[in-house]
Amino acid sequence: MLVSAKDMLNKAREGKYAVGQFNINNLEWTKAILLTAEENKSPVILGVSEGAGKYMGGYKTIVGMVNGMLEELNITVPVALHLDHGSYEGALKCIEAGFSSVMFDGSHYPIEENIAKTTELVKITSDKGLSLEAEVGSIGGEEDGVVGAGEIADANECQKIADLGVTMLAAGIGNIHGQYPENWKGLAFDALEKINAATGTTPLVLHGGTGIPEEMIKKAISLGVAKINVNTECQLAFAAATRKYIEEGKDLQGKGFDPRKVLAPGFEAIKATVKEKMELFGSVGQA
Ligand code: 13P
Questions:
Q1: How many Å apart are CA 160 and CA 47, to the nearest integer?
Q2: Distance 46 CA to ligand 1 centre (A)
């Protein structure tokens, strides 16, 4: 059964590790992540962007697929199904469809409007026992055509949003989605320290997990980060493994064209990436 991300993230914050949110794109992605979580006894969050939701045939399709896998693959670790960077309307749709967690990304609104909409969603999600992620200070880079400037969140604004009772808070600290450019300045730890001090025990969320050096990940966890989002890294691993299969001409040998064979190396590559991240984040054995 899907669970809210609340308990797993509060435990992670207490225990100074982070739970990975891995974005899903299809059945192979979902199965790879769930099996890896189970094998490593790690809690896990499956992230779904609005674009990926549409791609996979709608939120109800995803809920059906994930619930089916939890049962038939005997997944016993805590799993949350979470809307990533949702709009207000998208969050409502996911709640109705059976997601156990949603993110409302109001970071592009003036803070008053972000507060107003987040307040409404705190009420709706807490009544239903679901978790809610809010965002202050947009994350840089491009996701589903939305380009954020990579702001550093203001600690006072973070406090205001955390005080509304959100489950977890994403705050921009110089992190961006996708691969980091050569001249990236790194995470703004001074800002993270202030945000952590201002937001009490609220688990903090680090977006743009792809390509952040290990020491920075560990330091971020020591400063209150309890959820780390990874998307691009699984995509790169999947694409590289699939390219290798095709370039080696494996699809032309025997029944190598069977989609189950074509997608197998990419599936294994996602599993390896997810395992590596779970080890780095310290969530292995925490379920
Ligand atoms: P990356 O694609 O950079 O790993 O970021 C993922 C993310 O933050 C999803 O919200």
A1: 25
A2: 12
